[in-house]
Design a protein that fits this description.
The protein is mostly helical. It is built from 6 helices and no strands. It starts with a helix and ends with a helix.
Length: 132
């Protein structure tokens, strides 16, 4: 499951085009993959719980998360920014975006109403980018 997600996110992140378009594509790809297979979100939460006792599961999720943040960091480094500490802002923004995605997936998983994961992710990513 993680390998398939990783392959699709790499294709989206490493494509041609401006950074903001690639970031939007990563966001859309992430959300669409989950909405096509909604059972993956609660399964991931269950596996994360098991990861506290099963080192192999923890290693898989840790590596996957690290690669995701590295891809985000690479894209964010290409976003036109202003300010003196762009590198520091990118280093802070990449894990923040990953945490936002994780949190919104939890809300989406628990939601009993029409929660549009793709729209919420797009809005959240846009808010972070405007802050760069």
């Amino acid at each position: 499951m993680l390998d398939a997600e990783h392959r699709e996110l790499v294709l989206a992140a490493d494509g041609d085009g401006p950074a903001l378009e690639r970031l939007e594509l990563v966001t859309r790809t992430f959300a669409r993959n989950l909405t096509r297979a909604p059972e993956h979100a609660p399964l991931s939460l269950e596996l994360l719980t098991l990861a506290q006792r099963v080192p192999e599961i923890k290693d898989c999720f840790t590596a996957h998360h690290r690669h995701f943040i590295e891809r985000l960091r690479a894209i964010l480094a290409d976003v036109p920014a202003h300010g003196d500490d762009v590198g520091g802002e990118v280093d802070a923004a990449a894990p923040a975006l990953a945490a936002i995605a994780d949190g919104l997936v939890v809300h989406w998983t628990l939601s009993s109403s029409g929660f549009d994961l793709e729209a919420r992710l797009r809005e959240a990513v846009s808010a972070v980018i405007r802050g760069l």
